[in-house]
Request: fold
Amino acid sequence: MSKRNFILLIIVLIIVLAVIFGFLFLNKPATNTTGGTTGTNFFSQFSPFGTKKTTTPPVVTPPVNVSGYQPPVTANIKLKKVSSMPIAGYTVFGEERLKAIPATPTPTPPSTKKTTKTPAPLTELVSALRYVARATGNIYETFADNISEKQFSSTVIPKVYDAYFGNKGQSVAMRYLQADGKTIETFLGALPKEPLGGNTGAVNINGSLLPNDTKDVSVSPDSGSMFYLFDSGSDMVGTTVNLTTNKKVQIFDSPFTEWLSSWPNNKIITLTTKPASGIPGYMYEIDQSGKNFNEVLGNINGLTTEASPDGKLILYADDNLSLSIYNPTTNLSTLLGVKSLPEKCVWGSASDVIYCAVPKSINAGQYPDVWYQGEVSFSDSIWKIDAKTGLATGLLDPVTAPGGGEDIDGVKLMLDSSQNYLFFVNKKDSYLWEFNLK
Reply:
């Protein structure tokens, strides 16, 4: 190559290099204005098309719900099944429990030399339930406002037919058949006091037996005593027992053996002849001394009764199941607008209202015999009756009520002391239920 051609080649190379560097300088990458960083692809730094600017990602709108679905609203459940098993009997009483205090941060107090006492735990008195499992005789308990069943006792008494609590849930009488299948045996047990905050496990129950063939038991309104009737062989004998001292006093005996007892107030015990269709029945009163035995109401076929807590009114029914209120002072009866039995009712503590399980329909039959014998079962609604005016108001149909959905043949009705809750047992299967009246 000649010297002149070599110089021309060098000049052309210099021009080409100048053009390339000029092009790269004029196409410098744009500054990132979105707060991000540049890419890490090395070859992109020399792309002849420059670097793509960073842009803000578009806002994505979520899809609109066009299904029409709404989350279900929790229903106000006022009717609840309490027991998880058939029961023989139950009671409701006031029990002290620790208050649930929400955890909140508290500032650390300044250190002082004085010693401060730890404050006593805050407690509250609430309604509690105890009941006896029919199959095993084990006792279970729960609070009325928070159904959370737990076992209280472990003493096994198989096939308990009836159970009655006294002494504010600290005593229990259980009735069952002996091995011969005929003789009625009644165990009267004392329950240990439960420590504040709950027991530490199921406990054993100690007690003794009442006389064989104890036919009927009723509890005093203060729950401190029981009255029981037993067959002595020739007479029916009535005895009171103090559940604290175990002192027994006989206050009644009669050659007539078919009686049903009730203890409406601390002054009187009522005795009503066992009812039968077409057979006149009678009701008597006896005081705790046994000196006064007076007829109150009588000559009513199929008579069943329930005296008011103040003893001034008698709720009764005949063999047509027509409920009436009798006033012993005026000797007048008021026919109510509903049909049921006093066994399916409970008086309010002020003797001004009555809550009843009222059959929706009643088929023809010999009442109350066919109901006692289990040949007939009712489907009830819950009613409230004004004892002064006789006005009856329907409160609940367990079949359609939230939490219900069952046919209820209500028996053993009971109110808590505040009358916020009505409890009853379904005669169809012996399960315990709670109706919140608030």
